[in-house]
Write a structure and sequence with these properties.
5-stranded antiparallel sheet; globular; 20% strand; alpha+beta
Length: 179
């Protein structure tokens, strides 16, 4: 591999996406490049180091261990999108913005740890809709929210989680009482 081929554009824009809590502990993380941070131990060490460098900073971007990391915090959560050192920061920021705005709409502007944990299945679905193996599939939060809403409505009863079944039952009871 020549040095020129390292800087050629690829579809593989994202190296990883992570959501950490106020203490720097992982809530959800997905890494797409097997050559970068390949073990869980390396990932958690990187996340701890990343959190320590960013939790008091007001910046939006940092270079760490050869990765360009864009981040955003909200209440008790930290959102990170990571790319290679020569990746376009605007693309990474677009993915971060899409992630945050989508979750904000889905969670009704209540983006905090407790609510995120209660809806972790939907959050994982959002991550899967945004990016597949490092390739950005969606960067528009409105269409992403629409896709996720369609996917959660169409799940057969046998494949729904217990939380989804209870929520559906509560909604049906609420609407029957309001009639």
């Amino acid at each position: 591999m020549t040095s020129e081929s390292l800087f050629e554009p690829t579809l593989y824009n994202i190296k990883g996406i992570a959501i950490l809590d106020n203490d720097g502990n992982r809530i959800l993380a997905k890494y797409y490049d097997r050559n970068v941070l390949s073990t869980v131990k390396e990932q958690k060490t990187f996340e701890k180091n990343l959190f320590n460098k960013t939790h008091r900073a007001n910046d939006e971007i940092i270079m760490l261990d050869g990765l360009t990391c864009v981040y955003r915090s909200n209440v008790d959560l930290f959102f990170y999108v990571m790319g290679s050192s020569f990746e376009n920061e605007l693309i990474l920021m677009t993915v971060l913005q899409c992630l945050f705005e989508s979750l904000s709409q889905i969670l009704r502007k209540n983006v905090e740890k407790r609510v995120l944990m209660d809806n972790l299945d939907i959050v994982m679905l959002v991550l899967d809709e945004i990016c597949d193996n490092g390739i950005i599939l969606e960067a528009d939060s409105a269409s992403l929210v629409q896709k996720v809403a369609l996917r959660t409505d169409d799940i057969p009863l046998g494949e729904q989680t217990v939380a989804q079944v209870f929520q559906s039952a509560k909604d049906q009871i609420k609407w029957s009482l309001l009639k």
